[in-house]
Amino acid sequence: IEAQFAEKFEILQTIFKRTFKTLFEGGYAEINYETPEDVLNSGVHIIARPPGKNLTHLNLLSGGEKSMLAISLLFSFIELNPSPFCIIDEIDASLDDNNIDRFTDYLLHFSQETQFLLITHRRNTVEVCKKIYGVSMAQNGISQVISLDLEEYMKSRGEEDGIAI
Amino acid sequence: IEAQFAEKFEILQTIFKRTFKTLFEGGYAEINYETPEDVLNSGVHIIARPPGKNLTHLNLLSGGEKSMLAISLLFSFIELNPSPFCIIDEIDASLDDNNIDRFTDYLLHFSQETQFLLITHRRNTVEVCKKIYGVSMAQNGISQVISLDLEEYMKSRGEEDGIAI
Amino acid sequence: MYLKELEIKGFKSFADYTKLTFSTEISAIVGPNGSGKSNIIDAIRWVLGEQSSKSLRSRRMNDVIFSGADNRSAMGFSEVNLLLGRDKSDKGDLLITRRLFKDGESEYKINQKKVKLKDILSLFMDTGVGKNGYSIISQGGIDSIVNASPSDLREIVEEAV
Amino acid sequence: MYLKELEIKGFKSFADYTKLTFSTEISAIVGPNGSGKSNIIDAIRWVLGEQSSKSLRSRRMNDVIFSGADNRSAMGFSEVNLLLGRDKSDKGDLLITRRLFKDGESEYKINQKKVKLKDILSLFMDTGVGKNGYSIISQGGIDSIVNASPSDLREIVEEAV
Ligand SMILES: Nc1ncnc2c1ncn2[C@@H]1O[C@H](COP(=O)(O)OP(=O)(O)OP(=O)(O)O)[C@@H](O)[C@H]1O
Ligand SMILES: Nc1ncnc2c1ncn2[C@@H]1O[C@H](COP(=O)(O)OP(=O)(O)OP(=O)(O)O)[C@@H](O)[C@H]1O
Ligand SMILES: [Mg+2]
Ligand SMILES: [Mg+2]
Question: Which chains touch A (3 or more CB pairs under 8 A)?
C-alpha cells in the first residue's frame, strides 16, 4: 500500500509541475514530502512561484493565486485517476475573469474524455457550457429546476437585466 | 468594561435583527449569548431563518446565505460604530448577482456618511462605483495602478472583450 | 460510467419530484444563493452511497429528508434515482436507487433489484467514481487544500491517488 | 477622517512610486489575481500602525519590503504616506508616514514631524478607524465569521463593539 502511494505520488509530482505551468502560463511549482527520509509518515507541502515573481511561501500568494494552485492540484488528481464524470461546485469564486478563461480552457481540453458538471455564479464559466440547469426556489422553500441550452439561457438573461448571469 | 460590552451587545442585537431582515428581504435572525447566565464568559452564536425556510442550524445554510449572514453582521458593526471610511476586500465572492445588488443597495444607503473602497472581481459591484482603480502587474512582478471613472473603465473593457470585467 | 438522468424526491429542498436529464457536453448549474444547487450534488453523493452525514452538510443522516417549509410540512421519506450510462462496455445502463424513511429505514436498489449499501459501494470501487478519486469537488474543496497543514494535505493526496 | 491620497514605495509588490488619489464617492479596486489589490489594503493598515505581521499576511514585518522580482533586486526600505482629510473639524489634513528599513529601523511621522508608533495609534483611538471597529474588512473576513466557534465569534464581536 505504502509503495503504491509512493509510486503514484511520484507520477503526481510530474503531472502537477506541468499542470501548474499550463494554468499559470509559466512559473514553477512542486509538491514534495516534508520529511523525505520518512516517506511513510511524512506530510506533504507545495512550493510555488508564479511567473515573474520570487519563490514565495504559500502565505504570500494572493487569494486567487492560491485558488489557481489548488485547481492545478485538483486537475492533477483528475489526470492521474480519470473519472468518467466530474462535478465541480463553485471552484471559481476567487478567480478574475482571465483566470476563469484559463480554467475553462483546461476543462474543454479534458471534456472529450470527461463529462463535466459545474456549479457557478460566474458569467465566463457559464459561457463555455452547452447545457444550463437553472435552479430556483419560489418563496415556498421548495427547489425547482429548468433545463435550457446556452442560447436560450443567454436570451432569457438578456431580457431580464442586460446580459447579467 | 464588561457592563459596557453588555450594553453595546444589546444594541447590536437590535441592529442585527433589522439588518438581516433588510438584506434577506424577510426571514429572521438573532445573535445571542450561548450561556446567558454567564455573560462575562459566554460565547456568542447566531440563529437564522431565511424567508420561506424553516429555522435551521447555520450549517444547513448555503455558501452564499452564510456570506449574506456575515455581511449582515459586518454592516451591523458599521452601524453601531460608524467609521468615516470603510475598505472591503472581496466580500462578494460567493454571492449571486441579485444578492450583490442587495449588498450594493445597502452600501449606497450608507455611502453619504461613509467613504467606501471595495476590492472586487464582480461586474455588478463595479457598476455602482464612480471611480475605478485598475491594478496590474506586468510580467515583471511590479504592481502599477491607473485611475479611471466608471464610464472610461466600462468603455476600455467593452473594447477588450465585450463587456467583461 | 457517465451521468444520464437524476430523479430527486423529498431530498433536502427538493420536496417535489424533480428530474434532470444530463448531456455529455460540459454543463452548468446556476441559480440564486440557497436555491438548491449544492443540494443536487449532495443527492448524487448520497445515491452513490455517501455514509458521512458531515460530507452531506448534515448533522444526522435523517436531516436529508425534506424538513418542511412555510406552506409544506416535512416529508416521510427521501428518494434519489441515478441512471448511469455505460456505452463503452456492452452492459446496459445502471439505475441506482436510494431511499431513506424518517424512522431510519433505508432501501437500496440496482436496476430495480433490492441490494445492500455495500453492493452499491463495490460497484464504484476502481472506477475512479465516488469516494475513490476526485469526481465530486465540493463547495469549499479549494479552501481545504489552501488551508491544509502538511499532514492534512497528505491525507487529501492519499485519498486522491 | 476620510482617505484623500495614498503614496506607496517599496511596499510589497509596489516597488515603484505609486500614488492614488481618492474620491469620497464609492470606489472600486479591480485587477487580475495577484496584481496587488490586497497589497494596497495592507499598505493602508500598515501606515495606520498595524503591528501584527500576520494581519499583513507576512511572517516577519520585514517581509513587507519589496523582495525583488525577475528583473529587479530587493529594495532597502518600504515607505507609505497616507493623507487624511478632516473637513468636518477645522483642523487641516493629516499626513501619516511610515518607513521601514531592511535593518529593522522604523520611522513614523505625522505632518512631516517625527513621532513614535504609539502617537499614530492614539490618533485613531475612538475614531472608529483602524483596529477599533471594522473600517477594514480583509479578504477572508467573511470566512472567519462563517467558521467561527461561539468563543471565536465572541472575540470578533468584542473587537467590533
Ligand atoms: N432537509 C431539508 N429540508 C428543506 N430544506 C433544506 C434541507 N436541507 C437543506 N435545505 C435548504 O437548502 C438550502 C441550501 O441549498 P444549497 O446549499 O443547495 O444552495 P445553493 O444553491 O448551493 O446556494 P449557494 O449558491 O449559496 O451555494 C438552504 O436554504 C436550506 O435551508
Ligand atoms: N514583499 C514583497 N515583494 C514583492 N512581491 C510581493 C511581496 N509581498 C507580496 N508580494 C506579491 O504580491 C502578490 C499578491 O498581491 P495581492 O495579494 O495584493 O493580490 P490581489 O490583487 O489581491 O489578488 P487576488 O485577486 O487574487 O486577491 C503576490 O503574488 C506576491 O508574490
Ligand atoms: Mg452551493
Ligand atoms: Mg486579494
Answer: B, C, D
